[in-house]
């Protein structure tokens, strides 16, 4: 365990380790109580840390494990949403990392029971990381920031997802970015999952054309 005085989003030097788990606050305008999990990186501007148009190294398995821990253990926290978020903000490290977050307002951040629950999720998730069975490893495309379709899919299927590019970043997506999503996943990516209704037809057609050129299998969800 290590602590830093600066914002986690702007961290540049990482310890030599297999995985960094950022226990962090999540904020949103809605203020909805939530537990969220996501990979770091920027598809375009680096408004909140990291480098522009650069993704951090992610672990699809870690994303799934901590998401499942939140969902399976949240007795007493029924008012909290559990969700994956799309890839966003810094830092953009070469060490695989995952954000495990408590949100979304000061009220939740000061809730000691909720904070302890996040700590328990991290500790129990760490114990599970090396005991995970065979999972299909994916990257995701489409939908909004909170990725409900990807969240439901991962929780129901033997699947883990690393980076997710949302519809509002689609104008910045190209073949190089898709290849970076694959390359910046520590596991071997097998499939691209497409939130079919979360993209316009012209966006889907452009995406599928790029995936076919790259040679990555794709599936609509």
Automatic annotation (TrEMBL):
Any one GO molecular function term: metal ion binding
Pfam families assigned: tRNA_deacylase (PF04414)
Keyword Hydrolase: yes
Database matches in SUPFAM superfamilies: AF0625-like
GO BP terms: D-amino acid catabolic process
Entry keyword annotation includes Hydrolase: yes
Database matches in InterPro entries: Deacylase_DtdA_archaea, DtdA
Keywords: Hydrolase, Metal-binding, Zinc
PANTHER family reported in the protein's UniProt record: D-AMINOACYL-TRNA DEACYLASE
Protein name: D-tyrosyl-tRNA(Tyr) deacylase
Natural source organism: Candidatus Syntropharchaeum butanivorans
Lineage: Archaea, Methanobacteriati, Methanobacteriota, Stenosarchaea group, Methanomicrobia
């Amino acid at each position: 365990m290590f602590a830093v005085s600066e914002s986690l989003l702007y961290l540049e030097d990482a310890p030599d380790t297999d995985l960094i788990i950022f226990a962090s606050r999540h904020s949103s305008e809605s203020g909805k109580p939530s537990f969220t999990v996501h990979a770091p990186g920027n598809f375009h501007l680096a408004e909140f840390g990291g480098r522009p148009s650069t993704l951090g190294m992610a672990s699809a398995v870690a994303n799934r494990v901590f998401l499942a821990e939140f969902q399976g253990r949240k007795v007493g926290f029924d008012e909290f949403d559990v969700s994956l978020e799309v890839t966003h903000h810094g830092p953009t490290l070469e060490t695989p990392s995952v954000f495990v977050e408590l949100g979304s307002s000061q009220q939740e951040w000061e809730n000691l029971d909720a904070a302890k629950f996040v700590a328990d999720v991290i500790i129990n998730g760490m114990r599970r990381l090396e005991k995970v069975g065979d999972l299909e490893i994916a990257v995701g495309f489409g939908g909004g920031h909170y990725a409900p379709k990807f969240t439901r899919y991962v929780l129901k299927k033997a699947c883990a997802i690393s980076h997710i590019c949302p519809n509002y970043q689609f104008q910045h997506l190209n073949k190089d970015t898709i290849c970076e999503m694959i390359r910046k996943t520590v596991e071997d990516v097998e499939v691209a999952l497409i939130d079919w209704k979360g993209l316009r037809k012209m966006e889907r057609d452009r995406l599928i054309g790029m995936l076919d050129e790259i040679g990555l299998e794709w599936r609509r969800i």
